[in-house]
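REVIEWER CHECKLIST
Item 1: Sequence provided? yes
Item 2: Single chain? yes
Item 3: Sequence as submitted:
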Amino acid sequence: MILGNRSTGWNTGLTHGINAVWFNLFFSASGFFCLCLCMGEMSSALPFSGGVFGFVRAALGPFWGFLVATCEFVYCITAIALKAQRVFGSTSSNVLDAGGIVLIFGVCLLLNLIGGKPVFALTSVMGLLITSLLFIYLFGTLGNVGSDSIGFSHNTLPDVDFTWVHIMSSRSAVGGLFNGMQFFPLLSPYLKEPREQLPRVMLISCSTFLVTTVFIILAAVSRDNGGKKLSSTSTPLLNGFGQIFDMDSTQAQYLDLPFQFSSVFCLFYCAGRQLLAITKSGLLPSFLEKTIPGSDTPYYCYTFTAIVGVGLNLFVLYYPEHLAEVKAVSSTSSVLIFIFCLIAFMIFRRKFSSMARSFVNPLGDFSAIYGILTFCYAIIALVFYTDVNPLFLVAIGGCLLFSTIFFWTYLVKNQKFSDEEKKIMFKAYLINANRNMRKNRLKNNKIGPCTNSGADNPSNSKCKISFCVECL
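Item 4: Structure as written out by the authors:
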């Protein structure tokens, strides 16, 4: 899903100058790297298949977890709307485009209904395909990269000063490159050792995305196509493939399809799995929890995702003037998810400090605070330095307000912990209880779990509980 962002839109920030792009790229990437460090430590202790929703719910409580779940679903659906518009291209007929939208969601629904390991294998194939195409692009274009071209020696773009306005204005174009990191914990059911594997794959992937993005920017600003450099186009990879293989734009568009379809498919999968996770926690009607026997596929969740996705895509299709607001809603939702996640990490480290971890964030609270600052900066840039309609703030606020009312009027009495959460949270409770009892015993100069006299007599009921907890 993240690699799909390499193909469209990101390079509009180049109109504000290459220095502003470099600054935002590395500032944004460092924030996401801190996010990966925090998520890696939480995943190594509590590998929830619900991802960020599970972390926030465990650390901050059910209400905040439900707000995060709302933001995650809004992000998935709005991001799908942005991606699906590019899969089928733009025709002269809205009817054909609408048919393409329905077809895309129908294919995604059917593929996800297969469920289980086949879906995981399919996403792996997609990942290998788009990664291969990405490296073909890089090796096909980097031969023309030089110090002169990096400095815009062709003067295709205006010479822009490195000012605060240009820095903030280019942030929204670059910042979304790493969106999708929050969905890595969804892989935990498919991994043999999620506690060890998730932190590793998050950090490796984040580093890979940064390196490839740097190479793409270098290639984009140095390629020349009839006097037009890729930095002035909205689809740098598409134009790059056209140059490499001597294709026209229509032919090259077919090479862009795997990027976009893989993004739609994976976002569709993530939206369905998130709905299942919050349903199992009693935060949505229980019928959504029903799965296909043998494949653990939540067919109602995926069907609901398909219906909402088609509806929003048709809205964007017939009212394209609101596409910028949909993009703004998507970006803001993702940023709110990240901020909640980083806050949850700081609480998590104190609340579950005794839980065994295979990975410990070496930067601790500093990484969380730094990450929060980078994402707050993203919201400021989006709200005050873009031309999007302020209605997107009303949309975000409306979603959160509706979720709040729904939670406190209905869900607060119906929420529960899923079987996965019960297992992990009960273990965390025992470990923390064990730690606190040990501290109390050391403070009172007690030695061992039980002795033969006084308050430490095994026949004492309180002592029996202490003994059992320590043994467990």
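Item 5: Key structural point noted by reviewer: The CA atoms of residues 449 and 467 lie 6 Å apart.
Item 6: Recommendation: ____
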